[in-house]
Amino acid sequence: MSVSRRTLDDVATVHRVRSDAPFIIGLCVLSSVYVLLIAGMLLADLSFTTPGNFLAALRSEEIRYAIRLSLISCSITAVLSVWIAVPIGYLMSRYPFRGKSVLDATLDIPIVLPPLVIGLSLLILFRTPVGRLIERFLPVTYAVPGIILAQWMVGCAFAVRTMRTTFDQISPRQEQVALTLGCSQSQAFWQIVLPQARRGILAAGTLAWARALGEFGPILIFCGATRMRTEVMPTSVFLELSVGNIEAAVAVSLLMVVAAVLVLLLVRVFGRTAPLEANQI
Amino acid sequence: MIALENVTAGAGTFRLPGISFEIPTGQYGVLMGRTACGKTTILETICGLKACRAGRILLDGREATHLKAAERGIGYVPQDGALFLTMTVRRHLAFALEVRKLPQKAIDARVAELARLLGIEAILDRKPVGLSGGEQQRVALGRALSAQPRILCLDEPLGCLDEETHHETCELLQRVCREVAVTTLHVTHSMNEAKKLADCIFRIERGGVTRVLP
């Protein structure tokens, strides 16, 4: 190890700093590896199919059913997710209570659990007496409600995270002022907090929608892959691949890519403006 | 009148035991103390935003120790104003009256009266984003006064203002509090501010509150 011979006087007079270029270049090179891989993947998809293949896939009755079912189930999932995520997010953001860290970890389980395990767990849940009772009135397993439930299990977890962050960014001081002005806690929530959280709500709903659109594992286990019954877009990709119809699989995949990009753009727009608005004063 | 009798205030592990002081009706009281000595905690306890762990709080002679914040009849102005970001200035002034379901005509009249009193007629249709620090504090003051509270609690309301705006707002506070005859508790660490505004000054030291002036 070399010993520096500099004195304090040397340091005070001249201090040279190395160029920042190697650091910046290093950042760019490492980042571009991943970005290029994503772009390359999408370009490969695009080059694999032709407009003819794409339109032929769209003309297929089964694929049109899958697209329709995906759009409907994802939209229901998004609404249900927001409906639950808003109260949970607000509760977690505002109230201290015993066992909060345990609840916090529990809410993340659907995010970290392997998708197949979620599907299997749902299947087992609906084999219990309570599950069977529900099934007597509303068929869930291997049916469309099961698809929504499987999508919702994961989508809602992302919506909860988004809503918690949204409420964390809104100052509780405003609610306190509202309380002194004569509001109940519920009035302060509806009149002060919720209007400010609207962009976060849209972001949460959009994120849940996007997650639901890509959900495959839990749906396959919990609802099967029956054409014209429990077939959503990822199921179509799986079924078309399994019979060797790669063109149709790629066409459906591209549709999902377009939907995902649109959703991500929306989330960015809502996500960027939400905290700004909250911190502007 | 604001009276604290042997109150224990605090949040988490922080405790301020045995606080007693009284601000007579219609007077302007200033509570002073160093940063983080518990001034805001006492103010929030009076407003009902933090629980009073022991003792009694009397507001206008009425027992208010365990009343909800909404039932105490206090106008509260926090340091940062905490304006409602999605509402116009007009709605800020109308908010407490809308909560109390007053007829629209009475609300409009009160909004006009407050806007005139605080000199904010020109910004009634603007939202908080983009308002200057002085304008924000005027709006926060108007919002706090709209339901004609008997008590006003101000948490370092002049803390974030530049020198000129500080002086203007100080004069405004003096004039408004006299005109509306409200009992005021103003929390600050500035002796200058206290001398300009106060009828009586209290200081938090050694964990208790002592009267400094008069």
Q: What is the mean predicted local confidence, pLDDT of chain A?
A: 88
CATH superfamily of chain B: P-loop containing nucleotide triphosphate hydrolases
Strand order of the largest sheet of chain B: 6-7-8-3-9-10
Query: Unreliable stretches of chain B, pLDDT < 50, 5 or more residues?
Result: none
N→C terminal distance of chain B: 17 Å
Poorly predicted runs of chain A are 274-281
User: How many E-type strands of chain B?
Assistant: 10
Task: Describe the protein's architecture and organization.
The complex is a heterodimer of chains A (about 280) and B (about 210). Chain A is mainly alpha-helical. Chain A folds into 2 domains: about 20-50, no CATH class; about 55-280, MetI-like fold, CATH 1.10.3720. Helices cover about 80% and strands about 0% of the residues of chain A. Chain A has 14 helices and no strands. Chain A has helices spanning about 10-15, 20-50, 50-60, 60-95, 100-110, 115-125, 130-135, 145-170, 170-180, 185-195, 200-215, 215-225, 235-240, 245-280. The longest helix of chain A has about 35 residues, at about 60-95. Chain B is of the alpha/beta class. Chain B has a single domain (about 1-215), classed as Rossmann fold, CATH 3.40.50. Chain B has helices at about 40-45, 90-100, 105-120, 135-145, 165-180, 190-195, and strands at about 1-10, 15-25, 30, 55-60, 60-65, 75, 150-155, 185-190, 200-205, 210-214. The interface between A and B is medium-sized, with 21 and 31 residues.
